[in-house]
Amino acid sequence: MQAHFEKRYAFSPGETKLMATEELRKNFLISKIFEADQINLTLTHYDRYIAGGAMPVNETLQLSNPDYLKASYFLERREMGIINVGAKGTVTVDGKTYELQFKEALYIGRGSKEVSFSSADKNSPAKFYINSAPAHRAYPTKKVSKQEAEVVELGSLETANHRVINKLLVNSVLPTCQLQMGMTELKSGSVWNTMPVHTHDRRMEVYFYFEVPEGQSVCHFMGETQETRHIWMQNEQAVISPEWSIHSGAGTSNYTFIWGMAGENLDYGDMDHCAINDIK
Question: How far is CA 280 from the centre of its chain?
Fold first, then answer.
Protein backbone atom coordinates (compact mmCIF):
# COMPACT_ATOMS: atom_id res chain seq x y z
CA MET A 1 0.00 0.00 0.00
CA GLN A 2 1.05 3.55 -0.65
CA ALA A 3 -0.20 6.74 0.97
CA HIS A 4 0.19 10.20 -0.48
CA PHE A 5 -0.33 13.29 1.67
CA GLU A 6 0.01 16.92 0.70
CA LYS A 7 -1.01 20.26 2.11
CA ARG A 8 -2.25 23.51 0.62
CA TYR A 9 -1.90 26.98 2.11
CA ALA A 10 -4.73 29.48 2.43
CA PHE A 11 -4.94 32.56 0.22
CA SER A 12 -6.83 35.83 0.53
CA PRO A 13 -9.29 37.12 -2.10
CA GLY A 14 -6.72 39.72 -3.15
CA GLU A 15 -4.06 37.11 -3.85
CA THR A 16 -6.47 34.74 -5.56
CA LYS A 17 -7.83 37.22 -8.08
CA LEU A 18 -4.28 37.73 -9.40
CA MET A 19 -3.72 34.03 -10.07
CA ALA A 20 -3.47 32.71 -13.61
CA THR A 21 -5.01 29.41 -14.67
CA GLU A 22 -2.17 27.15 -13.52
CA GLU A 23 -1.88 28.91 -10.15
CA LEU A 24 -5.60 28.48 -9.49
CA ARG A 25 -5.42 24.81 -10.38
CA LYS A 26 -2.27 24.23 -8.31
CA ASN A 27 -3.73 25.81 -5.18
CA PHE A 28 -7.42 24.82 -5.29
CA LEU A 29 -7.89 21.77 -7.55
CA ILE A 30 -7.33 18.27 -6.14
CA SER A 31 -6.87 16.38 -9.37
CA LYS A 32 -6.01 12.88 -8.15
CA ILE A 33 -8.40 11.32 -5.64
CA PHE A 34 -8.42 7.61 -6.50
CA GLU A 35 -5.52 5.32 -7.39
CA ALA A 36 -5.45 1.56 -7.04
CA ASP A 37 -4.25 0.38 -3.60
CA GLN A 38 -3.50 3.92 -2.49
CA ILE A 39 -4.84 6.53 -0.07
CA ASN A 40 -4.54 10.11 -1.35
CA LEU A 41 -5.24 12.93 1.10
CA THR A 42 -4.88 16.71 0.84
CA LEU A 43 -4.96 19.08 3.81
CA THR A 44 -5.99 22.67 3.25
CA HIS A 45 -5.29 25.37 5.80
CA TYR A 46 -8.86 26.63 5.34
CA ASP A 47 -10.21 25.22 8.62
CA ARG A 48 -7.52 22.48 8.38
CA TYR A 49 -9.89 20.42 6.28
CA ILE A 50 -8.75 17.16 4.66
CA ALA A 51 -10.19 15.66 1.49
CA GLY A 52 -9.15 12.61 -0.52
CA GLY A 53 -9.87 9.00 -1.29
CA ALA A 54 -9.01 5.38 -0.64
CA MET A 55 -9.28 2.76 -3.39
CA PRO A 56 -8.49 -0.74 -2.14
CA VAL A 57 -8.08 -3.29 -4.93
CA ASN A 58 -5.64 -6.08 -4.09
CA GLU A 59 -5.19 -5.34 -0.40
CA THR A 60 -6.74 -3.75 2.67
CA LEU A 61 -5.66 -0.14 3.11
CA GLN A 62 -4.79 1.11 6.60
CA LEU A 63 -5.29 4.79 7.42
CA SER A 64 -1.86 6.02 8.45
CA ASN A 65 -0.94 9.09 10.50
CA PRO A 66 0.81 11.84 8.52
CA ASP A 67 3.42 13.94 10.31
CA TYR A 68 1.62 17.20 9.56
CA LEU A 69 -1.21 16.29 11.95
CA LYS A 70 1.20 16.21 14.92
CA ALA A 71 -1.09 13.64 16.54
CA SER A 72 -0.67 10.18 18.06
CA TYR A 73 -3.11 8.80 15.45
CA PHE A 74 -5.15 10.30 12.61
CA LEU A 75 -8.44 10.78 14.46
CA GLU A 76 -6.99 11.73 17.84
CA ARG A 77 -8.44 15.23 17.45
CA ARG A 78 -10.46 14.75 14.26
CA GLU A 79 -13.73 13.39 12.90
CA MET A 80 -14.18 11.82 9.47
CA GLY A 81 -16.88 11.35 6.86
CA ILE A 82 -16.78 8.75 4.09
CA ILE A 83 -19.05 8.25 1.07
CA ASN A 84 -18.54 5.23 -1.16
CA VAL A 85 -18.69 6.20 -4.84
CA GLY A 86 -17.61 2.78 -6.13
CA ALA A 87 -18.69 -0.83 -5.72
CA LYS A 88 -19.40 -2.53 -2.39
CA GLY A 89 -16.71 -2.31 0.24
CA THR A 90 -16.11 -2.25 3.97
CA VAL A 91 -14.63 0.21 6.43
CA THR A 92 -13.35 -1.26 9.70
CA VAL A 93 -13.16 1.08 12.69
CA ASP A 94 -11.42 -0.24 15.80
CA GLY A 95 -12.42 -3.79 14.93
CA LYS A 96 -16.02 -3.09 13.92
CA THR A 97 -16.84 -3.51 10.23
CA TYR A 98 -19.29 -1.33 8.29
CA GLU A 99 -20.39 -2.40 4.82
CA LEU A 100 -20.93 0.49 2.43
CA GLN A 101 -22.78 0.15 -0.85
CA PHE A 102 -22.68 2.74 -3.64
CA LYS A 103 -23.53 6.22 -2.30
CA GLU A 104 -23.76 5.13 1.34
CA ALA A 105 -21.98 7.17 4.02
CA LEU A 106 -20.13 6.57 7.26
CA TYR A 107 -19.38 9.04 10.03
CA ILE A 108 -16.38 8.21 12.26
CA GLY A 109 -16.08 10.02 15.56
CA ARG A 110 -13.02 11.52 17.20
CA GLY A 111 -10.83 9.09 19.09
CA SER A 112 -11.17 6.15 16.69
CA LYS A 113 -7.66 4.72 16.48
CA GLU A 114 -7.64 2.18 13.64
CA VAL A 115 -9.42 2.64 10.32
CA SER A 116 -9.03 0.37 7.28
CA PHE A 117 -10.64 0.05 3.87
CA SER A 118 -11.31 -3.00 1.70
CA SER A 119 -13.29 -3.97 -1.42
CA ALA A 120 -15.67 -6.89 -1.75
CA ASP A 121 -14.40 -7.62 -5.28
CA LYS A 122 -11.02 -6.49 -6.59
CA ASN A 123 -12.43 -6.54 -10.13
CA SER A 124 -15.02 -3.98 -9.07
CA PRO A 125 -13.39 -1.98 -6.25
CA ALA A 126 -14.90 0.37 -3.75
CA LYS A 127 -13.97 4.04 -3.93
CA PHE A 128 -14.13 5.70 -0.53
CA TYR A 129 -14.28 9.49 -0.75
CA ILE A 130 -12.94 10.89 2.53
CA ASN A 131 -13.38 14.22 4.34
CA SER A 132 -12.02 15.08 7.79
CA ALA A 133 -12.11 18.11 10.08
CA PRO A 134 -10.82 18.95 13.58
CA ALA A 135 -13.25 17.89 16.33
CA HIS A 136 -13.69 19.15 19.90
CA ARG A 137 -15.57 16.08 21.19
CA ALA A 138 -16.38 12.50 20.28
CA TYR A 139 -19.64 11.39 18.68
CA PRO A 140 -20.60 7.79 17.84
CA THR A 141 -19.52 6.22 14.56
CA LYS A 142 -22.60 5.64 12.40
CA LYS A 143 -23.49 4.46 8.91
CA VAL A 144 -26.06 6.48 6.94
CA SER A 145 -27.79 5.12 3.84
CA LYS A 146 -29.48 7.23 1.17
CA GLN A 147 -32.82 6.14 2.62
CA GLU A 148 -31.84 7.72 5.96
CA ALA A 149 -30.71 11.01 4.43
CA GLU A 150 -32.67 14.24 4.58
CA VAL A 151 -33.71 14.79 0.96
CA VAL A 152 -34.57 18.11 -0.67
CA GLU A 153 -35.56 18.60 -4.32
CA LEU A 154 -34.80 22.00 -5.82
CA GLY A 155 -34.66 23.86 -9.12
CA SER A 156 -36.33 23.12 -12.43
CA LEU A 157 -35.50 21.90 -15.91
CA GLU A 158 -36.39 25.35 -17.26
CA THR A 159 -33.46 26.89 -15.35
CA ALA A 160 -31.22 23.85 -15.95
CA ASN A 161 -30.77 23.16 -12.23
CA HIS A 162 -33.30 20.47 -11.30
CA ARG A 163 -31.48 18.56 -8.56
CA VAL A 164 -31.90 16.34 -5.53
CA ILE A 165 -29.88 17.17 -2.40
CA ASN A 166 -29.15 14.22 -0.11
CA LYS A 167 -28.06 15.49 3.31
CA LEU A 168 -26.18 12.47 4.64
CA LEU A 169 -23.81 13.53 7.42
CA VAL A 170 -25.52 16.64 8.78
CA ASN A 171 -26.76 17.57 12.23
CA SER A 172 -30.40 16.93 11.28
CA VAL A 173 -29.47 13.27 10.65
CA LEU A 174 -26.75 12.60 13.25
CA PRO A 175 -24.56 14.61 15.63
CA THR A 176 -21.20 15.90 14.39
CA CYS A 177 -18.78 18.50 15.67
CA GLN A 178 -18.35 20.61 12.54
CA LEU A 179 -18.06 18.25 9.59
CA GLN A 180 -21.08 18.06 7.28
CA MET A 181 -21.37 16.10 4.04
CA GLY A 182 -24.00 15.46 1.44
CA MET A 183 -24.54 14.61 -2.19
CA THR A 184 -26.36 16.52 -4.92
CA GLU A 185 -27.62 14.64 -7.99
CA LEU A 186 -28.54 16.65 -11.06
CA LYS A 187 -31.43 15.44 -13.17
CA SER A 188 -30.99 14.70 -16.87
CA GLY A 189 -31.03 17.94 -18.83
CA SER A 190 -29.84 20.04 -15.87
CA VAL A 191 -26.25 21.23 -15.51
CA TRP A 192 -26.11 24.06 -12.93
CA ASN A 193 -25.36 23.51 -9.24
CA THR A 194 -25.60 26.04 -6.41
CA MET A 195 -27.25 28.70 -8.53
CA PRO A 196 -28.07 31.38 -7.42
CA VAL A 197 -24.66 31.48 -5.76
CA HIS A 198 -23.85 32.18 -2.15
CA THR A 199 -20.99 32.47 0.30
CA HIS A 200 -20.83 31.72 4.03
CA ASP A 201 -18.09 33.34 6.10
CA ARG A 202 -18.40 30.80 8.92
CA ARG A 203 -17.53 27.67 6.96
CA MET A 204 -15.51 26.47 3.98
CA GLU A 205 -16.34 23.68 1.54
CA VAL A 206 -14.83 21.10 -0.77
CA TYR A 207 -16.75 19.93 -3.85
CA PHE A 208 -16.07 16.49 -5.36
CA TYR A 209 -17.49 15.93 -8.84
CA PHE A 210 -18.28 12.41 -10.06
CA GLU A 211 -20.62 10.59 -12.44
CA VAL A 212 -19.38 13.00 -15.08
CA PRO A 213 -19.89 11.08 -18.36
CA GLU A 214 -16.87 10.19 -20.44
CA GLY A 215 -15.91 13.05 -22.73
CA GLN A 216 -17.75 15.64 -20.59
CA SER A 217 -16.47 18.20 -18.06
CA VAL A 218 -17.65 20.55 -15.33
CA CYS A 219 -16.70 24.22 -15.07
CA HIS A 220 -16.45 25.16 -11.38
CA PHE A 221 -16.85 28.82 -10.46
CA MET A 222 -15.06 30.33 -7.46
CA GLY A 223 -13.95 33.71 -6.10
CA GLU A 224 -15.80 36.67 -4.67
CA THR A 225 -19.21 37.43 -6.14
CA GLN A 226 -17.80 40.53 -7.86
CA GLU A 227 -14.50 38.89 -8.89
CA THR A 228 -15.21 35.33 -10.03
CA ARG A 229 -12.80 32.82 -11.53
CA HIS A 230 -13.28 29.34 -12.98
CA ILE A 231 -11.60 25.92 -12.97
CA TRP A 232 -12.41 23.22 -15.52
CA MET A 233 -12.72 19.85 -13.81
CA GLN A 234 -12.90 16.22 -14.84
CA ASN A 235 -14.62 13.19 -13.36
CA GLU A 236 -13.63 12.28 -9.77
CA GLN A 237 -11.79 15.50 -9.00
CA ALA A 238 -12.27 17.86 -6.05
CA VAL A 239 -11.92 21.60 -5.54
CA ILE A 240 -11.30 23.64 -2.38
CA SER A 241 -13.67 26.53 -1.70
CA PRO A 242 -12.62 29.18 0.88
CA GLU A 243 -15.14 30.81 3.19
CA TRP A 244 -15.14 34.00 1.12
CA SER A 245 -15.65 32.23 -2.21
CA ILE A 246 -18.69 31.20 -4.18
CA HIS A 247 -18.88 27.51 -5.13
CA SER A 248 -20.97 26.78 -8.17
CA GLY A 249 -20.63 24.79 -11.34
CA ALA A 250 -22.04 24.06 -14.76
CA GLY A 251 -21.37 20.85 -16.67
CA THR A 252 -21.53 19.87 -20.29
CA SER A 253 -23.85 17.12 -19.02
CA ASN A 254 -25.64 16.32 -15.79
CA TYR A 255 -23.45 14.87 -13.01
CA THR A 256 -23.32 14.30 -9.25
CA PHE A 257 -21.20 16.04 -6.64
CA ILE A 258 -20.42 15.62 -2.96
CA TRP A 259 -20.19 18.70 -0.80
CA GLY A 260 -18.28 18.62 2.45
CA MET A 261 -17.87 21.55 4.79
CA ALA A 262 -16.57 22.63 8.17
CA GLY A 263 -16.47 25.78 10.25
CA GLU A 264 -17.85 27.27 13.40
CA ASN A 265 -21.54 26.62 12.72
CA LEU A 266 -23.83 23.77 11.71
CA ASP A 267 -26.65 25.88 10.24
CA TYR A 268 -27.08 24.60 6.69
CA GLY A 269 -29.14 27.68 5.78
CA ASP A 270 -26.53 30.22 6.91
CA MET A 271 -25.77 31.70 3.48
CA ASP A 272 -25.15 35.14 2.00
CA HIS A 273 -26.93 34.97 -1.35
CA CYS A 274 -26.07 36.88 -4.48
CA ALA A 275 -28.56 37.63 -7.22
CA ILE A 276 -27.70 36.02 -10.55
CA ASN A 277 -27.61 39.39 -12.35
CA ASP A 278 -25.15 40.79 -9.77
CA ILE A 279 -22.41 38.19 -10.32
CA LYS A 280 -19.30 39.51 -12.06
Answer: 26
Is this prediction's pTM over 0.90? yes
Whether residue 104 is annotated as binding a ligand: the answer is no
37 phi-psi bin (left φ>0, alpha ψ -120 to 50, beta other): left
| pLDDT one-digit tens code per residue, 150-176 | 999 999 999 999 999 999 999 999 999
Number of residues written out for the chain:
280
Task: For residues 204 and 264, give the distance between their C-alpha atoms in angstroms, rounded to a whole number.
Answer: 10
Specify the CATH architecture of the domain 2-278.
Sandwich (2.60)
198 is in an annotated binding site: yes
DSSP codes, 177-204: SS-EEEEEEEPTT--EES-S-EE-TTEE
Neighbours of 20 (CB within 10 A): 9
Q: Please tell me the distance from the alpha carbon of residue 270 to that of residue 46, in angstroms, as a whole number.
A: 18
3-class SS of residue 205: strand
Bridge-based pairing of strands 256-263 and 49-55 is: unpaired
Nearest to 41 by CA among 115, 104, 96: 115
Q: What share of the chain is helix, strand, coil (3-state, %, to 5)?
A: 10, 45, 50
205 marked among binding-site residues: yes
Tens of pLDDT, residues 98-138: 999 999 999 999 999 999 999 999 999 999 999 999 999 99
- The answer to whether 273 is a known ligand-binding residue is no
* Positive or negative: CA dihedral 101, 152, 137, 246: positive
